Amino acid sequence: MKDFRYHVVSLTAVFLALAIGIVMGSGPMRTALVGEQDERIAQLEQDVDDAESDLAHQRDEAVAGEQFADESAAALLPGTLDGASVATIAVADTSDDDTAALSDRLVQAGASVSGQIEIGAAWTDPDQAAFRNSLASTLAPDLVGVDTDAAPTTVLAHALAQALMPEAGPAAGADGDPQERANLLMELLVEADMVSGTVSGDVSAVVMTAGAGADDDDQRATASAAYADLAGVLAQYADGVAVASGVDRTGDVPSAVANASASAELVTTVVTGLDYYGRITTPLALAQNIGGEVAAYGPGDGRSMLP
Asked: What pLDDT score does 26 carry?
């Protein structure tokens, strides 16, 4: 009897569930449930249509903005860097495309791009500290007017500066063949994987292009300090130096320049100087720096968008 009653209860529950399903699947209950679902689907479809419309509008605005920037650049840039021979120096994982696009604007401003250099990871890698110290000691005898007791990265910065601008700054008027010394220094830096790239002629000004850098804030800040020191040393030789970066980031190169008094007094920075619109500001900022003015450009407090 007990087993039979158990089966009866189970069958009753099954039939009850079926009955409830039939009631909910038909009549007013079904109409209410389906109607509510239809309303949700209609709202989602409307939301998708609105999003697509907004995206199309934003694309149109972006195209118009870039066209405006191109026509503005054609009016603002030509002639501002006439006679300048610029070397681009890429640090902190700058993309080749960003550097190339900025170089196009420099040329539009009247400059010639006579050097395209990339700083290698060994320049800031903590595991390469001993190697940098040894390399600095090796290069020091071939440098002119440099304190051999300076930090290794500072000595290396002078080596790169004298390789690019052998008759400028502390090296001006040195005995011997300046170009021969410059070639030797560049060869040693390249062989040591400190730098890569090419130099096709005289250099009178420098644009440092700074990418996002390391993901870790402390690593990025440490590397940025070395790049800021490099920018400051280059400014002792060049007619002008500008640092162009992406958007603000903790411990980025523009921040390091601002925090290093020796660099801050000589180097102009352009935050977002690598984006489509900032590439117009960077040549103008470099021209102003060549003229003797040092400033900070880009969005944010204490900066302006254009010189």
From this structure: 57
Predicted confidence at residue 275, as pLDDT, reads 94
Q: Which two tokens stand for residue 35?
A: 């109607």
How many whole angstroms separate alpha carbon 89 and alpha carbon 7? 84
**Residue segments in the chain with a per-residue pLDDT below the cut of 70:** 1-35, 53-54, 56-64, 66-68
Q: What is the DSSP letter of 300?
A: S
Q: In whole angstroms, what is the distance from residue 151 CA to residue 159 CA?
A: 13
Please provide the size of the chain in residues.
307
Strand (E) or helix (H) holding 184: helix 178-191
Closest CA to 116 of 73, 137, 87, 74: 87
Nearest 10 degrees: CA dihedral of 170, 176, 180, 182?
-10
CA pseudo-torsion sign 143, 147, 153, 157: negative
pLDDT tens per residue, range 36-64: 777 778 777 777 877 776 676 566 556 66
**Contact call for residues 285 and 274 (beta carbons, < 8 A):** no
DSSP state string for 4-49: HHHHHHHHHHHHHHHHHHHHHTSHHHHHHHHHHHHHHHHHHHHHHH
Helix (H, G, I), strand (E, B) or coil at 240: strand
